[in-house]
């Protein structure tokens, strides 16, 4: 039973980390598009760019300068998404190892 709980906990940690990475990227896109919309409304963008293009704009190809906290957040998201094959087995093994160390309810290991 304790190994089943450990596996459920590992799955929850893995899901939470992937959710964190996805939400970081989504938050960046929302902030990026909001700043583009603000620049478009103030007339600082070319008139050839439509409002629909702003709503679907991707950060690639724009000359962006990001704050260090944004860069750190996107860097962590990138590590989580690109190195999943390293940290997922570590999380699972760590949870199973901790379950093995956890005493049984009867006191016998």
Describe the fold and architecture.
- The protein has helices at 2-42, 51-55, 68-82, 84-101.
- It is 72% helix and 0% strand.
- It is rod-shaped, with a radius of gyration of 22 Å.
- It has one domain.
- The protein has four helices and no strands.
Topology:
Layout: H1 2-42, H2 51-55, H3 68-82, H4 84-101
N-C termini distance: 13 Å
Strand content: under 5%
Secondary structural class: mainly alpha
- Tally of discrete structural domains: 1
Residue ranges: pLDDT <50 for 5 or more in a row? none
Taking all residues together, what is the mean pLDDT? 90
Shape estimate: rod-shaped
Number of strands: 0
Range of helix content: over 70%
Sheet of most strands = none
Specify Rg, calculated over alpha carbons: 22 Å
Order of helices and strands: HHHH
Keywords:
109 residues, 0% strand, mainly alpha, rod-shaped
Task: Summarize this entry quickly.
With 109 residues, the protein is an all-alpha fold.
């Amino acid at each position: 039973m304790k190994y089943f709980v450990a596996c459920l906990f590992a799955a929850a940690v893995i899901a939470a980390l992937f959710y964190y990475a996805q939400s970081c990227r989504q938050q960046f896109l929302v902030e990026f598009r909001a700043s583009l919309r603000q620049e478009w409304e103030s007339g600082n963008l070319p008139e050839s760019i439509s409002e629909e293009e702003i709503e679907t704009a991707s950060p690639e190809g724009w000359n962006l300068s990001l704050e260090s906290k944004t860069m750190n957040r996107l860097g962590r998201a990138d590590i989580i998404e690109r190195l999943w094959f390293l940290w997922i087995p570590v999380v699972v093994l760590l949870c199973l190892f901790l379950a093995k160390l956890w005493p049984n309810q009867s006191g016998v290991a």
